[in-house]
């Protein structure tokens, strides 16, 4: 998430609020609609970032699982499963 993302989401949120309330006319609900949309966009981006990180860790544990077994440490499959579960929880939260 960077400055450009924030600006893009703010503009998108304003455009969204303009579809709900007629552009150029004052309406007290416009700010609330804009702010809720902005918050939803930021939350969705954060979920995607967390999901991507969990997927990367799960893949790393799966690839390195055989290496860890050779070292006598068998936690890689469990860690990969935990990461997969985290991805699933993040996806469910996004659907709510």
Task: Tell me what you see in this structure.
With 96 residues, this protein is mostly helical. The protein has one domain. 84% of the residues lie in helices and 0% in strands. The chain contains three helices and no strands. The chain has helices spanning 3-20, 28-70, 76-95. α1 (3-20) packs across α2 (28-70). The model has no long low-confidence stretch (mean pLDDT 81).
Name its key features:
single chain; 96 residues; mainly alpha; 84% helix; 0% strand
Runs in which pLDDT lies below 50 for 5 or more consecutive residues are: none
Helix content: over 70%
- Along the chain, the helix and strand elements come as HHH
**Strand percentage:** under 5%
Whole-number count of domains:
1
Count of DSSP helices?
A: 3
What is the rounded Rg? 20 Å
Shape: elongated
Short description:
This protein is mostly helical and 96 residues long. The protein has helices at 3-20, 28-70, 76-95. It has one domain (3-95).
